[in-house]
């Protein structure tokens, strides 16, 4: 299905729209938590534009609130976002013919949700003249939704009294993200390992227990996948 660039772009936007219903609440939660962690509104919004990675942003604001050293924050974000290397390897064969400027833009827009929609489209249709415009439409739809929902969360966060304490929403958010994704044995083993290890190494300084738990969980998940 060749179509035109604009048609492929609009198809990408349209296919991404159902996912945005689930993304927007997490963007608002991030905005609220960023303010409660002490970030100025401008910096909280800039993080959504520069980092543009929901899980990393939510974890970062928690670590900032705990006054964790910046080196640990950067390392934690790196570990959390390692999955994007797998996403890149998956879509690379479909993008290798594009100029560098296109690759740079699409790499920036390569999130979990954009990858899911774009990779399915490539599997259905293969490489076409305007298939990268579909990817662009899906990615920009998600980007726009994330920026707007972050701004709404920041506005709402400014209205919420500090005494309310919204820290509990962070673990609830991650539980809501993880549980629906546990569809096979490897995922279940990964989640259980991460939970047990996080509790076992909770006492490590600078929140290093999070990094240890993530590393052990990744190793356990990979081992289970190989065994299967």
Can you walk through the features of this model?
It is a single chain. This protein is an all-alpha fold and 228 residues long. It has two domains: 5-165, no CATH class; 182-228. It is 77% helix and 0% strand. The protein has eleven helices and no strands. The chain has helices at residues 5-36, 41-50, 54-65, 70-80, 83-95, 100-108, 112-125, 131-159, 169-178, 185-200, 208-227. Helix 4 packs parallel to helix 11 (208-227), helix 5 runs parallel beside helix 7 (112-125) and helix 7 packs antiparallel against helix 8. The two termini are 37 Å apart.
Q: Main attributes?
A:
228 residues, mainly alpha, 77% helix, globular
Kindly report how far apart the N and C termini lie. 37 Å
> Mean pLDDT across all residues, rounded?
84
3D shape: globular
Strand segment tally: 0
Spatial extent as radius of gyration: 19 Å
Going by helix content, strand content and strand pairing, the class is mainly alpha
* β-strand amount: under 5%
What profile does the largest beta sheet have?
none
Number of distinct helices: 11
Indicate the low-confidence ranges by residue numbers.
none
Query: SSE order, as H and E?
Result: HHHHHHHHHHH
| Total domain count | 2
Helix content: over 70%
Please summarize what this structure is.
With 228 residues, the chain is mainly α.
Topology:
Elements: H1 5-36, H2 41-50, H3 54-65, H4 70-80, H5 83-95, H6 100-108, H7 112-125, H8 131-159, H9 169-178, H10 185-200, H11 208-227
